[in-house]
Each structure stands twice: as C-alpha cells, then as structure tokens.
Amino acid sequence: MKWPARLFVVCLFPLHALKLQSTSRASRVQNCHIFTLWNYSRPVPEYIHLNLQSWQLASKGRCGAPVLVNRSNVRQWIPDAPEELFRIPYEAAESDAIRYALIYHNGGIYMDTDFLAIDMSSIIDRISDHDIIGYTAEAQNFTHGQFSSNFLAGKKGSVVMGAIWKAQKERMQKHCPAEMEPKSGMCCYDDPQRACSVRWAGLGEGISHPALRALMKSKTSFKSFIFSGHESFVPDGLVEVLKKKMSKSEGLKYWKKRKVMKPLSRKMYHLFNSQGFADAYSCVDLTNDLSGSVAGELYKLSQVKRRQVPHGDLVRKCANDGGLCHCQGIAFYGRRPPCTFLYVFSACQKLTANSTALRSVCRLDLESIVGRNFADKRNDLVRSEMS
Ligand SMILES: *[C@@H]1O[C@H](CO)[C@@H](O)[C@H](O)[C@H]1NC(C)=O
Ligand SMILES: *[C@@H]1O[C@H](CO)[C@@H](O)[C@H](O)[C@H]1NC(C)=O
Ligand SMILES: *[C@@H]1O[C@H](CO)[C@@H](O)[C@H](O)[C@H]1NC(C)=O
Ligand SMILES: *[C@@H]1O[C@H](CO)[C@@H](O)[C@H](O)[C@H]1NC(C)=O
C-alpha cells in the first residue's frame, strides 16, 4: 500500500508548483526591485525568512525576488558608492547609507528585514511615477519633512532620493580632523583604515529629513504618496501590542480605546526587531499561532508558509538563532550575542577598580557588534563607570 501513496505525492507536487507559478506571476514592473541589507553571519531568525517570503507573495513577483545587498555586491547597484561607505561601522548605519541610493539608481523598494507585507499592489502601482512612497508613524508629519525610513519606495532617478543621496555622499566625504569624535551626526576620517564615526541616525533620518525640507523649501516639484494616519504601516501602539503578546481580541480592544482605526488592515507592518521581536516570538510558530496573538494574526494575513520544522524542546530563555527553538542562553534584543560581546559586556561590568582600562574596553564600538540598540546600554555602562 506504500507504493501508490508515494506515487501520488510525486505526481501531485509538480502540478501544484505549476499552479502557484501561473497565478503568482503578474507582469514584471520595469525599474522595480525590492532591496534589503543582508549581512548575517549568524543564522537568520525564522521570522525574517517568513518576512522575505511575504514580500514576494504581496508583490506577486512584480518586482522580482528580493535583492540582498551588502558590501560584496553594493557597487553593482550603487555605482557611485564612495570609498567611505565601506568604513561605516555598523549595519544599521550602513543600511541608512544605501537605501536612498538603491532607489535612486535602480527604482523600487527598500525595506528592513523586520517588515511583513500583506498587499503591496498599491505601492508597486505607483513606483513608475512617484519620487517617494513612504509612511509616517505617530507624531510624524510629511509636510514638515518627516517620514519613517525603514520602508521607502520610488522611481529610478527620483528627485527626492537623488537629493538625499547627494547630501549623504557629501557628509561622508567631508572628513573630520583625526582627534574629533562627533557628539551627533557622523564623520569619516582621512585615514582609509579608520572606521567612520556614526551616531544614532547620523547618516539616516538626521540627513534625509533636513534634505527633504530643503527640497520643499526650494519649491522643487516632486510626486509623493505617504501612507499615514489609519494607513500607516505602524498602527499607534503596535509595539505595546506585540511586546505584551496581546491576543487579537485584547489588541482590538486596546486599539479601540486608543481610537486607532483599521489596525489589522494595513498593507505592511513594521515589526520592530529593535524592540526584541525575534526574542519574544522566537519559539512561536507564527504561521500557526495557537495563542491567537496579533502577531500570529498578521502572519496569517500574509499567507506565508513555514519551511522549517521545530527542533528540540522549548527552553527557558531563547535567543533566536535561526529555527524554532533549540536554544538557550542570554538574549539581547532577540539575538544571541557573540562571544566577544559577552566578554566585553562582563568585562565592563566587573572592572570597576581600574577605570581607565574599563573605559578603553567599553569604548570598543559595541554598536558594531550588536547594532545601534546597544548604544543606550553602552552609555549606561560608561556613565556608571564615570560615577
Ligand atoms: C552578501 O550578499 C550576498 C549576495 O546577495 C550573499 O550571497 C551573502 O550571503 C551576503 N553575505 C552575508 C554575510 O550575509
Ligand atoms: C557584516 O558582517 C561582517 C561579518 O560578520 C562584519 O565583519 C561587518 O562589520 C558587517 N558589516 C557591517 C557594515 O556591519
Ligand atoms: C501636518 O502639518 C500641516 C501643516 O503644518 C497641518 O496642516 C496638518 O494638519 C498636519 N497633519 C497632521 C496629521 O498632523
Ligand atoms: C589599569 O589599566 C592599565 C591599562 O590597561 C594598566 O596598564 C594598569 O596596570 C592598570 N592598573 C591597575 C591598578 O590595574
């Protein structure tokens, strides 16, 4: 009885694959790619694989498969990338440095890997004639030059992306004196071996918002479409809902109280990796979340399918390092910190006698190891060391 069953599976699979392909292949849009920064030396959390799958489903393949960009291929997409780009010290800053240029040179979409897509057709339909498609979060107002940069889209040659990229290049190429470390913003040094110094948002919104305001002030005309208010990709309070792992009914009640409209009908969602999403949902099958969480509901809407099987038991504390869920140990913003980080971190805590030594250890740019979220923690350490 085994034999016919196996035959059945073998025959069914290609038919199924064929059907998927024909329904999902809408016409390919010219000058539209979906870019993201991809520089993972550790295993990639499962939810990020699911997110990338959602981009392809939600775009019906009209912009091709996501293009994963890092130093190995960035010049292919940004031919005028200055040498300083390769001296940006951490990934969050590097992604800030490439997103505008990628759209300017190639057209399409840039988003961070913690974006889940539900329906991208209204974005893609606008790509060919818009200089900027984006969204604002609570308290941002595009007419004041504010927008969220973790999702951006626009046409090839966009006036807006071009102006911002030009401002970024100028900032990178205007070097600082060797002894200077900027307290805000960023700068690079003459020494080609030395990493640039980039403060929080120093290369990103710290440049792009003023550049947009300058463009508006100069009365340059450009075409924009901004998803805001009840179309924003971050319904107000989303972090709270995700962090507390609220169920769909709790979440809807919470949103109703805050007068947030259509929180579950947005086209895209920013899931805030920086707030620990990976860690909080590390051991949860997001495509079949039996607890009925809002996060599970969003993944259900995206129609993604998981490709990994769970392994091992659920553990006390799970630093997400790829799969469901065979991990143990300290998690930091949802990632398992590398050994050097643990070493430095404990060294910083233990060394109190010799504050000079402590300072030099802590001054290793920890952001470069774990990303910009570490900056606050590091400042705390430095502060407690000073006192
Ligand atoms: C860099 O990008 C290339 C091309 O997309 C990819 O194959 C490679 O795995 C990436 N490297 C890292 C460290 O993620
Ligand atoms: C990309 O990953 C490599 C390997 O982990 C790391 O050395 C490098 O600093 C990363 N790039 C950025 C811009 O952080
Ligand atoms: C944005 O700012 C403009 C001009 O100051 C104002 O008219 C508008 O109401 C603001 N929009 C929101 C959503 O606050
Ligand atoms: C303090 O640190 C410096 C630099 O690492 C070292 O040379 C010195 O011996 C240390 N002093 C003490 C008292 O540990």
UniProtKB/TrEMBL annotation:
Keywords: Signal
Signal peptide span: 1-19
Stored Gene3D superfamilies: 3.90.550.20
InterPro entries, alphabetized: GlycoTrfase_DXD_sugar-bd_CS, Nucleotide-diphossugar_trans
Pfam families: Gly_transf_sug
Designated name of the protein: Uncharacterized protein
Organism: Durusdinium trenchii
Lineage, highest ranks first: Eukaryota, Sar, Alveolata, Dinophyceae, Suessiales
